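Preliminary data (for renewal application), MRU complex.
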Amino acid sequence: MKINGTYYRSLWLDDDGWSLRILDQTLLPWRVEVLRLSSAEQVAHAITSMQVRGAPLIGAVAAYGVAIAMRSAPQDLDRIVAWLGETRPTAINLRWALARLHARLAPLPVAEREAAAYAEAAAIADDDAETCRLIGQHGLPLLQEIAARKGRVNVLTHCNAGWLATVDYGTALSPIYQAFDAGIDVHVWVDETRPRNQGAALTAFELGAHGVPHTVIADNAGGHYMQHGEVDICIVGTDRVTRRGDVANKIGTYLKALAAADNEVPFWVALPHSTLDMQVDDGVKEIPIEERSAAEVTHLTGPDDAGKLTRIQVTAPGSRAANPAFDVTPARLVTGLITERGRCEASPAGLAALYPDKAA
Ligand code: MRU
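Predicted structure:
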């Protein structure tokens, strides 16, 4: 996707052919800064510090982390895969990508691992971009149908499930981009998404760069707009979907799904195949929820009047803060899933019909 006329993917190989380039998402939207990652340690740091984030993207970046490590330590495959797998616990895409690399590389002689790892990482990245484009195609009819009825579509989204969270196009935002490009009058309510503000900072930045009309709202405002008929559809991304269709996503998603159910607003979840975890049934009980630093709740970062990034405290000094980064929306609150293979019910039967090859 484009920023100021330049086409970017959210990751790419450097001209040297082996190190990885990413956009530092902790600096967006204030600064567009490209980072070069040239060691597995730097890759791990980029994931834990959220210079890269979003379930599909961290999977692709971790795959390149393995490839970079294979240059100097191909005999260390098991250790590198296990270690990168610890960087973030909730999104299954990370483990999916690492398992794919491990399955491909483990049977090979060590001398062949580097080249095979780069090829596999590139395949994961290309597959993600194409998958997300297809998610957009399968989500588009939902928006077309509303536009045909009402002349205009108001979508509410939470967190950032756009191209910055994937390799390209995004998941939840992909149908929105396709609708906008097709001339549909679409407007997006962007939840700010405290504590890290991925909505206010990243989704708003992406939509703005593409010219999509949008309004950033406080996380607590969505229910109000739903009660007043101002939201036609919710579309969110996800970090893990279980066999029965429970959905883990950024903290606050569950409350939006509850408000949507109470107001009969359709609540759709967009996901690539790499986000499915058919080994898990009950998302609330079984999906590990990342607990992040309390400092993300107590402090906010933004530019001061001189444009310098500054942190300010927004909570009473001395108060404790807790920071679960994700929550789980039970399948019963999900209208349906939008995938690269089409749309389905959030249920064992719905998922099994679209993904017979993934059945647990
Ligand atoms: O903590 P983050 O920013 O990595 O969380 C991202 C989300 O929750 C996204 O909604 C999810 O990864 C889907 S991205 C296509």
